[in-house]
Every structure is written in structure tokens, then in C-alpha cells.
Design a protein that fits this description.
The structure is a single chain. This protein is an all-beta fold. The protein folds into 2 domains: 107 residues, Immunoglobulin-like, CATH 2.60.40.2030; 73 residues. It contains no helices and 18 strands. The strands form 5 sheets. It has a 5-stranded mixed sheet, with no helix packed on it. It has a 5-stranded mixed sheet with strand order 4-12-10-6-8, with no helix packed on it. It is rod-shaped.
Length: 257
């Protein structure tokens, strides 16, 4: 660089390439040296900063994940497409799913993730309730929205599945045998029971397996095969047998189910 006689100012020219890459702000350090017919002043080093103007995208790392309900502390990662010079924010909330919030199946607090300069990953935390209820696998749907200093990427919705690990209950008669006091007792109930309540509808087939009593003469048929349904939460169901009163002396009849 040359200063002609009487000239007191000159410029150092830099040509910046306006790329489309998301990146941190970058610097160029220019240094003065080897003056002639002059001495170096105080400011011999100048730093020029190129402020990036290509914001990143923010999105879930994947669209779905799952784990057993024994995994009570769950983290769902959200990432930036690249490190960025400015702070990036994005809101998240639960927008659907079959699982029940509020501590029944899980707990999550809607909020905002903040990515400070250079940070590319943050986590959404879910606390899963490891209950003892047999139930279908359940889902939590989380959605990203309202990005700040960024744009939403492709994966804006994540579905987390809680895999149930509880054994199905057993079903049986409440007793192996029962009897009416006499045949004038028109209807009698035989109870079916579950060993524990279930979160699902459970069915079992009851069949008329014979015995010494005669269907249609001593009792009304049960509609064999009869399907009994236990709705979620129910643990007992009756099978009703219609006893037919006759005037014939006979030993007590038996019905096998």
C-alpha cells in the first residue's frame, strides 16, 4: 500500500463471498508491517467480522422413537442443521397421542428450547409413569412451532411410544362349583373374574360343556359358545343360567362350563 505525498488515507479491500451455508460468524485479521519513511502506530492489527446471514433449520432428529415404560426418564433430541452465531429458540408442546398426561401415563411441560451460540442440540424431557396396568402401547405426539432466528426443518412432529410391559391378567370362574338351592331359583349367576384390572377390553369364550342337566329341559341354554367381554377396569362378569322348574322328581343336575 502506497501513500503518495499529501495522502493520509488508503483502504484495504476485501471481497466477501455471500454463501448460503449456515455457520458461525467468521473473522479476517489484517496486520500492518514493514513501514517505509514512517513508523507503525498503535493499531497495527484490524479484525473484520463477517456476520452470517443464513439461519439454520431446527427439527427433531427423528420422527419416532419408543421404549419400555420401565424407561421413566425420556429425552427427545431437537437439533439445528448447523451451529449458528445467534441464539435460536423454538417452542414445543404435546398435540396428540393415546397416552394420558398429568402423571397418569406421563408428565411433560410445554416450553421453549434455547440454542445459544454454537449449540446444535437440546432435549425435550418426558417422565413416564411405570404403572402396573396391562394396556396397549400408548403414544405421545410432540410438535415444534414458532422458531426464533431459524426456520422449521422437515421433522417438526415426533411420536414417542410407551411400550407396555405388564402381563395380561388371568381369567377364571370365581369358584370351581356352585349350586342353586333348588330348581325354583329361576336364574343363577356364575361369576367370571380377572386377576387384575386391565386397560384393554378382554374377551373370553364360555361353552356349554355338558353335565347331567339337559339344556332346554332343565335349563335355558347359555347361547354356547358365549363370548364375555370385560371392559377396561372391570374385573368381574356374570354368566347367567336360566333354570327351568319342572314337576319331575330327579337328582340334582349338573352343568359344565
Amino acid at each position: 500500500m502506497t501513500f503518495a505525498a499529501g495522502v493520509t488515507s488508503q483502504d484495504v479491500s476485501i471481497t466477501v463471498v455471500n454463501d448460503t451455508a449456515t455457520e458461525l460468524n467468521e473473522t479476517i485479521v489484517v496486520t500492518l508491517a514493514s513501514p517505509t519513511v514512517a513508523t507503525l502506530g498503535t493499531n497495527t492489527v484490524h479484525t473484520y467480522t463477517i456476520n452470517d446471514n443464513d439461519p439454520p433449520t431446527v427439527a427433531f432428529s427423528t420422527t419416532a422413537s419408543n421404549a419400555s415404560e420401565t424407561t421413566t426418564a425420556v429425552t427427545i433430541p431437537v437439533t439445528l442443521s448447523a451451529a449458528y452465531a445467534n441464539t435460536v429458540t423454538v417452542d414445543y408442546s404435546v398435540t396428540g397421542g393415546t397416552a394420558t398426561s398429568g402423571g397418569t401415563d406421563y408428565t411433560i411441560t410445554a416450553g421453549t428450547l434455547t440454542f445459544t451460540t454454537g449449540v446444535t442440540s437440546q432435549n425435550i424431557s418426558i417422565t413416564v409413569n411405570n404403572d402396573v396396568l396391562d394396556e396397549a402401547n400408548e403414544t405421545i405426539i410432540i410438535t415444534l412451532a414458532n422458531p426464533g432466528v431459524a426456520t422449521l426443518g422437515t421433522n417438526t412432529i415426533h411420536t414417542y411410544t410407551i411400550d407396555d410391559d405388564d402381563a395380561a391378567p388371568t381369567v377364571q370362574f370365581s369358584a370351581a362349583t356352585s349350586a342353586s338351592t333348588n330348581e325354583s331359583q329361576v336364574n343363577t349367576d356364575i361369576n367370571l373374574t380377572l386377576s387384575a384390572a386391565s386397560g384393554q377390553t378382554i374377551s373370553v369364550v364360555v361353552t356349554d360343556a355338558g353335565g347331567t342337566a339337559t339344556s332346554g329341559t332343565d335349563y335355558m341354554g347359555i347361547g354356547s359358545p358365549l363370548t364375555i367381554y370385560f371392559n377396561a377396569g372391570e374385573t368381574s362378569k356374570p354368566v347367567t343360567i336360566g333354570v327351568l322348574q319342572d314337576t319331575i322328581f330327579e337328582p340334582g343336575g349338573r352343568l359344565l362350563c
